[in-house]
Design brief:
Blueprint (H helix, E strand, L loop, with lengths): L7 H11 L15 E5 L2 E4 L4 E4 L12 H13 L9 H11 L8 E5 L2 H16 L3 E5 L8 H4 L3 H4 L11 E4 L16 H18 L4 E7 L14 H11 L3 E5 L26 E4 L10 E5 L1 H8 L13 H16 L2 H22 L3 E7 L2 E9 L4 E2 L1 H13 L2 E2 L1 E3 L5 E4 L7 H22 L27 E2 L2 E2 L4 E2 L2 E2 L8
Length: 493
């Protein structure tokens, strides 16, 4: 099959003409044109190879031959909606459920993480007829309207909107930069008590909580690892109030954390959510996702009298691909690889913390790792522009990494699960060189001494990979000042 190819400039011009301007692109001043990929590598139109450290969608590796074959063979036979009986649907549901606690036994197949989380909210609200939702600060759960409402990562960017009156934001359980830190005697209880206070306030106003929703590990919020025991206590508070606990595994499920198949299991065997949502890695790039819940919640959904139907969710091709992904994870021991390589990567990065004053914190599980850059380790001044400098310099070395978090100063590692120790060596070596150059230019040494703005090197630092503008090491995006977001109004309903 012939594929029409354009010069890169022509592709950019056509994108500007026909694609919505809100659809941002990585490295906007010099975007990459990727034409093929394999394993943990992506290739541009000139054949240059890039090491992919961020693509958690290509979970078992880009274009894995087993996954491609499974999809193609099923597509040759049949693809139709799930109102016809097909063994792929029930076989995949059975295989998926076997990775979860027994209580989570009923599946709804949909097409994206956003659609999964939207359906999870419907299930929760139907369960007891309650309406209010508790979410975490800096959370991101998807791009549809119902999920923008519960995604402070997104709605904090809206300067002229009001927050949905049924949505309540609890502090992110961040023990590095958050309200209760690692030196607190019991941060899990302290953060859970914040949720309890919200529930009490909701009840005092005559409303009822339908659900608490949280990413099992916050990704866009800055690779945040909740303290152990936090989810158990929150679930107890929420269930006592008649609500349910929704665990969003869209970014972190399917063995990425190494020690467990699901990130919520890091909290302990005594914690089981009422609803789990999944997407991204489930189909290795194929548009597929799922909501898994208890029989009790599913039967309450039926009692609404409204039939649920999804045209493409759970179609034979999607389920064949999903089965292949599960097979590859087992056959290639990718969960074990995530554990081994993740620990190796974390150890390398810890050594960088000993060498570089810009490295404030290393945190993560398996192949989900964050490196928070700060200009001062005591004040935790976000090194926002420096993080973007690292990202751009790595791109020049043909390594793809991103930065995120509320201050966009956390380097995010979420590579395909076939990532190797050699890959880890390469990227950390490059980061070491870049940080050394940056710190020399900024006059930073251990112990970290913060320079005044007039003392800083005045070289221009770049926009971030998503096109946000930076100047003199400080972010100047809408609703922020000197790299620290200000209080803004929220989404109006």
């Amino acid at each position: 099959m012939s594929v029409e190819r354009f010069e890169k400039k022509k592709t950019i011009d056509l994108r500007k003409k026909h694609i919505g301007p809100s659809c941002k692109i990585f490295f906007s001043h010099d975007p990459l044109k990727i034409v093929r990929a394999k394993g943990q590598y992506m290739y541009d139109e000139k054949g240059h190879r890039y090491l992919d450290c961020i693509n958690n969608v290509a979970h078992v590796g880009h274009c894995h031959p087993d996954v491609v074959k499974a999809g193609a063979e099923q597509m040759e036979l049949l693809n139709t909606n799930s109102r016809f009986l097909h063994d792929n649907l029930v076989l995949y549901a059975q295989r998926l459920q076997a990775t979860l606690p027994d209580k989570l036994s009923v599946c709804y197949f949909v097409n994206s993480g956003s659609e999964a989380n939207d359906l999870a909210l419907r299930l929760a609200r139907q369960y007891r007829g309650h309406k209010d939702i508790i979410t975490l600060d800096n959370a991101y759960h998807g791009h549809v309207s119902s999920l923008i409402d519960i995604s402070p990562y997104k709605f904090h960017q809206l300067s002229d909107a009001e927050q949905n009156q049924f949505v309540h934001v609890a502090p992110s359980p961040d023990v590095y930069r958050g309200k209760y830190r690692a030196d607190h005697p019991d941060p899990a209880t302290a953060y859970a008590d914040e949720v309890k206070n919200i529930i009490d306030n909701v009840h005092n106003k005559g409303s009822k909580v339908a659900a608490f929703i949280a990413e099992s590990l916050q990704s866009c919020g800055g690779q945040v690892i909740p303290p152990k025991g936090y989810f158990q206590q929150v679930a107890a508070h929420v269930r006592k109030a008649g609500g349910v606990f929704i665990a969003d595994e869209v970014q972190v499920g399917f063995g990425r954390v190494g020690t467990h198949f699901w990130a919520f299991q890091l909290q302990g065997e005594d914690f089981v959510p009422d609803i789990v949502t999944m997407g991204k890695p489930i189909g290795n790039g194929h548009p597929m996702s799922c909501v898994v819940t208890t029989r009790e919640v599913a039967e309450a959904f039926v009692s609404s009298g409204m039939e649920y139907f999804n045209t493409f969710g759970g179609n034979p091709v999607s389920c064949a691909i999903g089965l292949a992904v599960l097979d590859v994870i087992v056959k290639e021991d990718l969960q074990g690889n995530a554990l081994r390589v993740g620990r190796y990567l974390a150890n390398l990065l810890e050594k960088q913390k000993e060498r570089h004053p810009l490295v404030g914190d290393i945190r993560g599980c398996g192949l989900f790792v964050g490196v928070e850059l700060v200009r001062d380790r005591l004040k935790l001044t976000p090194a926002t522009a420096e993080a973007q400098e690292v990202i751009y310099k790595l791109k020049e070395q043909r390594i793809l990494l991103s930065a995120d978090g509320p201050h966009r100063n956390v380097l995010k590692f979420k590579p395909p699960m076939c990532f190797t120790t050699e890959d880890a060596d390469l990227v950390v070596e490059k980061i070491d060189h870049i940080l050394t150059e940056l710190e020399e230019a900024l006059g930073l040494k251990l112990p970290n001494i913060v320079k005044t703005e007039n003392e800083r090197n005045k070289r221009k630092l770049p926009t971030d990979e998503n096109g946000h503008q930076y100047h003199s090491g400080l972010v100047h995006s809408k609703g922020s000042s000197q790299g620290v977001p200000q209080q803004t109004k929220h989404l109006k309903i």
